[in-house]
Each structure stands twice: as C-alpha cells, then as structure tokens.
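Practice problem: predict the structure.
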Amino acid sequence: MSKLDFTVAVTVEIPPASVDELQRRFKKVHYHPDGNIDASAIPEIQLWLTPNSGLPASIPSIKDLPALKHIQLVSAGAEKALATQQMQAYATSPGNATLSTASGLHVLSIPNYVIAQMINICSQIPRQIAVGRSTKRWHSAQEVDESGGEVYYNRMTKGKTVGFLGYGALGRETARLLQSFGMKLIAANTSGKATPQATYIIPGTGDADGSIPSRYYSTKNSKSLEEFLKQSDVLVCSLPRTDATAYFLDSQKLSLLPKGAVFINVGRGNLISSEELQKALDVPGALLGAAIDVTDPEPLPDNHFLWSHPKLLITPHLSGDTENELGIAADIFLANAERIAAGKDVYNKVHFARGY
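Answer:
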C-alpha cells in the first residue's frame, strides 16, 4: 500500500502500534504527545490529530497553518475544542480546513453499558446486592421491589419498546445488539426520518442505512415527540451537547413514558437537570429506575442529593473509557486521510454553526 502524500502532526499519545502504522502510511509524521511541535514544522503540517481540547495553545490561530487541511479530534464530542479562542476565531471566518470528531470510537463499549444497565434495572440486580449487603441475609422480593406494582424481581424485556432519543453511532450499535432481545425499536431525531450513518463505522457494527428502527419520530414536532415518549418502555439518550439539546427533557416529558419505564442517558448531562430527574424518579409507580453516565452538573459534587437515590445508578462518565480507545481514534484519522486523498468529505465532520 502506497504512502499517503501528507505531512501530519500528532499531539496526543497513541499506542506504539498506531504510531508505527501512521509512520508507515504517511509521508512524514511529527509525533509530539506533549504538544511541543517545532516551529519550523508548523508551515508544512496538513493533517493534525489532537486531544479533545484542540490544537496546542502555542498555535495562536488556525490561519497560521498555511498547509492545514484537516483537524481530527480523538473525542466523540467537539464542544471543548470549539470553545477555544482558536476555533471561535476560525468559525467566524472559516477557511478550507475541516474539523472532525472520533464519533464511532465508543461503539464497542457504550452500547454494552446501555444494555447492561437496562438488564440491571429490569432485573433489579443492584437493589438485590445492596439489600443483601446491608442486611447480610437472604431477602425477599418485597424488600427489593420499588415499582409500586406487582411484586417480582425481574421485568421482561421481550416485547417491550426501546426508544432511541438520538440515533447516531451509539444508538445504532445499541439497536443492532438489542434486535436479539425481541424488543421493538423506534427512534427520534431532528428529521423524523431514517438517515444513512455518516460517522465512521467499525466493521460489523452499527446500522448503516438506519433500517433497524420500525419507525422514526421528530424531536422538532411536539406531537411526534409525545407519541415517541409514550411508547418508550426503555428510553436511551445519546444526544450531543448543543443549544437545542440543553435541558430538552424534564419531569413532565419523562412522565409520558409508560409505567415502569427505564431511563438511560449516555449523551450529555445537561439533557435534564438533576432537580427534574429527581422529580421524575420520586413519582410513585412511574419510572422503575434510571442509569446515567453523565450528570448535571458534571462532575456531580460530593454529597449531591442524586448520589443516594434508590432508583438511580450513577457512573462517572466512564462508559466510553474503551480499551484501545486512542488506537481506534488513530484508525479514524487514517480513514479520514484516505477520504481527503480521494477528494471525499471526512467522516464525523463538525459544522461550526451547529456546534457538532
């Protein structure tokens, strides 16, 4: 395989095997995980692989990079990079350089987390463990079940409906895996229609044409959204952080979910405030439980009232802490370089105006 005719900079630490692969595939690689790129190399850099915080602070302006074609982040989100002065200045008058995320990077871990937490809540496994530890004896279903309905340990998943609020890389891979559970799968997105998967796809994962959900609903249409929520026995949220998604959910919207529903959020914590989530969880006989890997605020402060809620499982935003995560990010970087060389648009392109 011939070398790609690009000079690249890598200012994030990636596995040695990935460094070797990039050096094999590119004309020249400046590998400086500490961010200290020699000033003499700056004018020739065409592609840049960076942390989620963006370019090193030593680069005052993107327009100081005359050969730059593309910046690749190693994160699935772009909000930290977009908040930098470099990006904000560039967004007001963008040139030809593009920006992309590593969306698709976490499809081998976060969908597994979603399914694990769904099973945890439906089978009330955390409560069984907690009661056993606290009482140090064999316990009954009555001591565990807090559904407000018929008392039993396990809720059936077969035949239930999973609603995906946001249907990007994470939602698509979760949907693919959940097909084997015999569950009905629906999705809500901006358009209310199936769309091709525009993100990088790890072979064998995802839903490239969006054909898995049996129906789509629009988040822009209140009646459509209401219909979607009323069907979602399990609501899986993986929306990005944007102005449109901030506090999109509240206790009133969660009250539309069927009795005994499960709420899971692996997108961004500000989808719903802590106060509104608590209200929804406190309604007797409503939510069976919730699992959140993201919080509002984040990190969740010590002794915050959500930490001890009996219906809530909280993890510290680590569901995407994937084995070989940065190796996968390097694979996405290489795939995008191949697309640029072929005159194609990059995977996971960030639109400056939208913020994602």
